[in-house]
Amino acid sequence: MSLPTPEHLRAWLVALESGLLERSLAVRAALLAALAGEHVLLLGPPGTAKSELARRLHRAFDGARYFERLLTRFSTPEELFGPLSLKALEDDRYERLVDGFLPTAGIAFLDEVFKANSAILNALLTLLNEREFDNGSGRLRTPLLSVVAASNEGPADEALRAFHDRFLLRVPVTPVGDDHFAALLRLDGAEPRWPLPISPDERTAVSAAAAQVSLGDEAVQALAALRAWLAAQGRSLSDRRWRQWVGLLRVAAATEGRRQIDGLDLWTAPLVAADEPAQAAALAQWFQADWLQAVPQEAPWLTRAVEAFERQLDLEMSARQDAEADDAAGKLALARQIGMGQGDEGDGMLRIVSQQLEQQLRRRYSPVHVAARVAQADELLAQLQAQRAQAAATADALAARLQGRLWWPPALALQVVDAHRHTEAVLAALHARLALVREGFATLPLDESLDEAAPPPVQLEPA
Questions:
Q1: pTM of this prediction?
Q2: 90 pLDDT exceeds 80?
Q3: Distances (CA, A) of 189 to 18, 192, 442
Q4: How far is 186 from 167, CA to CA, in rounded Å?
């Protein structure tokens, strides 16, 4: 038995996502959950391709039968589990004819799942959790791989919480945004090109490989950090849910060719630890900002420091010599008066004379002064360069780690790497500005005869 290759699984992700705009996250969650034997809840308004995703998903698994039902408060057990067997009733047995119904399905789609009545929900609890169905006096083992459920909203009744907990992954699904609206209108409904389905032997190989995946120290630290963060929010996950999540992450690692779960696998936290869509955004922020520290930085302290250097340079470049100021200013005024009415030739001469007199007006600085300013600028330049190099190295390292990640949504991978790239770009721009300031200090007018102490450093705010 061999595992499905990453290329094979990636081909299925492409096929499942074909024509389903902005459904990359839902597609990855559904296929990964099915490989791990877990269930998925899609939360969103009607008409957002939730049922289409489930119908496509069953094609990915060889021999998996498909079952679909829209549930209402008037739905009966017969609609899901099959009619009663009349022949069995004649023999005083209460059994159902389950063939073609949910107990014989590999992939099932249950729409408006929280509207079902208690009789159906109680039977579903055992089926989802145990993969077994009570039929008469016996309990049948079912071939169920995964149930994809859908609802417009989460459970309103506290009694539904136990059923809600059976869905390990809860994926918010929203209508297509403005950026892809034109593409939505142009969809032609063409059938995707389906790869070869994943065989039962390959599914068995996935389970065997997942059992060999270890839980790395980084992953333990990340999960512990998340547990503490949830506790601070007054929330928690059940022990069963933590264990199921780790099992899912083992499958993710095994199918990507990894032998260990790491901290990057916690990108799934918003899907597992959020009880409702509104909580998913806060969990995504925790993962990106607190754990990955992948937040674009504007470097406000360094920006203010560079601005302080720029202001100081402007002051020193515009400073005038005290002794010669009056004489040079008088000559400049006279030159301007003479140049008036002289035409283009007079204007050109005025500019030359004005530049010469402006140079005479400029204050001159000692070599000690210039060296001190340049040295302080060099110190900050070195700090900027070090932080810029660190941001670049962090972005490169993160991009390299994500290179082979099959299940990471591409948009998320781009977002977290770009956060560090943005920080690098901000620091590069500040470095370029400060380099110009340093050059300005280095070219201040010099007077080698001046003997003065080094000036006070440019005042910078505390970091």
A1: 0.85
A2: no
A3: 10, 9, 66
A4: 34
